[in-house]
Amino acid sequence: MNKTDIESTDLDNEARITLGLLNVVHDNAAASQRSMADELNIALGLANAYLKRCVKKGLIKIRQAPANRYAYYLTPKGFAEKSRLTAEFLTQSFHLFRRARAESAELFEHCVNRGWKRLALYGTGDLAEIMVLSARDHAVTLTAVIGRAPGETTFAGLPLVAETPASGTVDAVIICDIARPQAAYDEVCARIPAERVLAPRFLGVSEISAPGAEPARRNSR
């Protein structure tokens, strides 16, 4: 992943959190900072920092509420920014879908050519759902999705498991964790041979990060 890619990823993450915060405030003016953090799945300190940033930019206004609480409201500028970011993310989602479909097809063909038919996906989210759809067009079988979702036992119709299956129970694992692709890759490489751990190019995974891993064609080309 080059410097431009890293900067783009950081900006996307910042915009995602900002949009999420604006949505939470729009839906519930009485939401506490802790509930905002829980809703966005981020640390309380990070939620507080983003809230202060939005107030400083004039996107959110804070008012005193009874019982030493605060109420948060979107300003006209906040509503405009919420609409802009929503449109931007819809466009990005379309581009993600097209690129993910193309690269998933390459990965599945790579597996088929090597006789790897039992595959698992690592990570839940949009990318994993796209992979599940794409797999239907190829001679592979998705056996499970690796991830954690409290109270859930399936994802996109597949068994949801907390740990990477041991080597021999699956032929390969495809990384679908957009938030932490390198950590996911390294974790899976500790369980199965690194050459059987695959990832789409746009995730920017380094193939030589895992200790003892030898360079091989693991990412989509």
Distance between the termini: 14 Å
- Residue-averaged pLDDT: 85
What sort of overall outline do the alpha carbons produce when their principal axes are compared?
A: elongated
- The helix tally amounts to 6
The helix fraction, in percent, is: 40-55%
Portion in strands: 15-25%
The CATH homologous superfamily of the largest domain: NAD(P)-binding Rossmann-like Domain
* CATH class descriptor name of the largest domain: Alpha Beta
Report low-confidence residues grouped into runs of 5 or more: 1-11, 208-218
Order of helices and strands: HHHEEHEHEEEEHE
Query: If you compute it from the alpha carbons, what radius of gyration comes out, rounded to the nearest whole angstrom?
Result: 20 Å
Total number of strands: 8
The second-level CATH architecture of the largest domain is 3-Layer(aba) Sandwich
Main β-sheet, spatial strand arrangement: 5-6-4-3-7-8
**CATH fold node name of the largest domain:** Rossmann fold
**Main sheet overview:** 6 strands, mixed
Q: What is the total domain count?
A: 2
Structural class: alpha/beta
Describe the protein's topology:
Layout: H1 3-27, H2 33-40, H3 44-56, E1 60-65, E2 69-74, H4 76-113, E3 118-122, H5 126-135, E4 141-146, E5 154-155, E6 158-161, E7 172-175, H6 181-189, E8 197-198
Parallel strand pairs: 3-4, 3-7, 4-6, 7-8
Antiparallel strand pairs: 1-2, 5-6
Helix pairs in contact: 1-4, 2-3, 4-5
